[in-house]
Amino acid sequence: MLKGQLIAAVDQGTTSSRCFLFDREGHGVSMHQLEHRQIYPRPGWVEHDPEEILGRTVDVIRGAIEKANVPPSAIAAVGITNQRETTVVWDRRTGRPCANAIVWQDTRTDGIVAELAREGGIDRLRGKTGLPLATYFSGPKLQWLLDEVGGLRAAAERGDALFGNIDTWLLWNLTGGASGGAHVTDVTNASRTLLFNLETLDWDDELLKLLRIPRSMLPSIRPSSDPALYGTTRKDGPFGGSVPVCGDVGDQQAALLGQACFEPGDAKNTYGTGCFLLLNTGQTRIPSSSGLLTTVAYQLGARPAVYALEGSVAIAGALVQWLRDNLGLISSAADVEALARTVEDNGGMAIVPAFSGLFAPRWRSDARGVMVGLTRYITKGHIARASLEAAAFQTKEVLDAMERDSGVKLTTLRVDGGMVRNELLMQFQADLLGVPVVRPRVTETTAVGAAYAAGLAVGFWEDEKELRSHWLADRIWEPGIAPSERERLQALWEKAVARTLDWAPPGT
Q1: How many whole angstroms separate alpha carbon 1 and alpha carbon 451?
Q2: Is-contact 83 36, C-beta < 8 A?
Q3: 361 preceded by cis ω (within 30°)?
Q4: What's the pLDDT tens digit per position in 136-176?
Q5: Upper half-sphere CA count for residue 174 (Cβ side, 13 Å)
Q6: For the ranges 18-22, 104-108, 360-364, 388-392, which has the lowest average pLDDT?
Q7: How far apart are CA 89 and CA 394, in angstroms?
Q8: 3-state DSSP of 61-127
Q9: Which residues contact 236 (CB under 8 A, 6 or more apart)?
């Protein structure tokens, strides 16, 4: 393998960590993946062990390099993509986490959010941040840690405690850790904190004061693709040499890059633990009146930032995991399609997986999951089918809101993520939306996007035109039901969602 012929992409997700090596055509050369624990201390609380995630990340990097059988010199650059909003605080001197990471799905900050919304409502900060007040974002999680972990606020004010989303935690460790690691993040991750000003592309002093966050804790904010580099990998680390680290993109924005959605009006939906639909709006920030997020899509070097509208669904693939792990209906996630195909329809039932409340476009943290319409006729096949349909129904709600806000009616939907291998789901999604659903040949677009960000920074790829040439369709699903049937199904879903509301008191 010649020097600098591969790009490494570290993809740290909600349930697992992966490392991919890509060649110049954007083809995957090797991949290694390991899962990590999901920790549930109380109802509504979701945590990860940052040290376990770091250990798994180191192992998958080594595994991918070993599978490719290449030396460190074969890797031209490293890009990182990550589960966004998951909040880590650690000691700058020792590198040890001060507590478990609070995961984006966690709802413990509901009381903090309610207090913040007391004056001005949940849209109080939208003007600066593009975000509603919600338990989803990093800022309230960080405030909770500072208030509840003994001695942490004093350590933060001394400058001994550092904050970051998972990208920052990994970057700091991979580039040196306590021995000089880079404490940085990119604009996409910063835009998910409720502490970041979309216009200035910097931390906002008024927001920091409101949430009582010491600025000294925060990482420096850099472009998603940075020719100046965030740093180089430590020689004693998993890359075994000094490799430039110059790509950092939150997972859903990375998928937008990986789907080559470079033009305003381009959109993609990722079906993973949750569902995330993003619409590229170019250099224009479109405020949402329909419960969507205005967020940074990416920034390439010194060029202006590109923005997006986003609709976030908390639970999609996680519902299939729940069928596997909590109910034991299937032995692996891949079995859900076969089980769902044992029945012709949902049997009149519906599942709304509001395990962490409802995200876009409703933003109801008081909601909790329901399974409705049960009769003696219902079998586990109907439950499996209704679980898949839940991802499609939630996606349609987001797409409808996106069309209202943007004035753009989508003619196709590009899809990616682990669930797009499920052909029953993809056909139902096309039926429900009434537009074609297109799956690319390379469905791991999150990792591809992180690779693109790193590769552009070092000249591995020339520009977006070259990257667009790598995108190829694998399969297209055309809608196949009558509008009247679509309306009937949607009405059933709306009735089910109404049953989820006003269930959980604040803080649970």
Answers
A1: 18
A2: no
A3: yes
A4: 899 999 999 999 999 999 999 999 999 999 999 999 999 99
A5: 35
A6: 360-364
A7: 32
A8: HHHHHHHHCCCHHHEEEEEEEECCCCEEEEECCCCCECCCEECCCCCCCHHHHHHHHCCCCCCCCHH
A9: none
Give the three-state DSSP class for 299: coil
The residue behind tokens 């499920």 is 422
- C-beta of residue 145 within 8 angstroms of C-beta of residue 213: no
Q: Using the CB atoms, write b or e for 60-87: b if 16+ within 10 Å.
A: bbbbbbeebebebebbbbbbbbbbbbbb
Tokens coding 21: 């090596």
Q: What 3-state class would DSSP assign to 293? A: strand
CA distance 253 to 157: 32
Q: Which pLDDT tens digit goes with each residue over 374-429? A: 999 999 999 999 999 999 999 999 999 988 998 888 888 999 888 999 999 999 99
Distance CA 171, CA 185 (A): 8
Residue 257 and residue 249 in contact, taking contact as beta carbons nearer than 8 Å = yes
Over 148-177, what HEC string results?
Answer: HCCCHHHHHHHCCEEEEEHHHHHHHHHCCH
> CA-CA distance, 353 to 379, in Å (whole number)?
18
Q: Where are the alpha helices (DSSP H) in 326-379?
A: 336-340
Structure tokens at 313: 């669904």
Number of neighbours of residue 96 by Cβ within 10 angstroms: 10
Structure token digits, residue 406: 């943007």
Angle between helices 483-498 and 380-406 (to 10 degrees): 100
Other CB atoms within 10 A of residue 302 CB: 9
Q: Could you tell me whether strands 220-222 and 28-35 are parallel, antiparallel, or unpaired per DSSP bridges?
A: unpaired
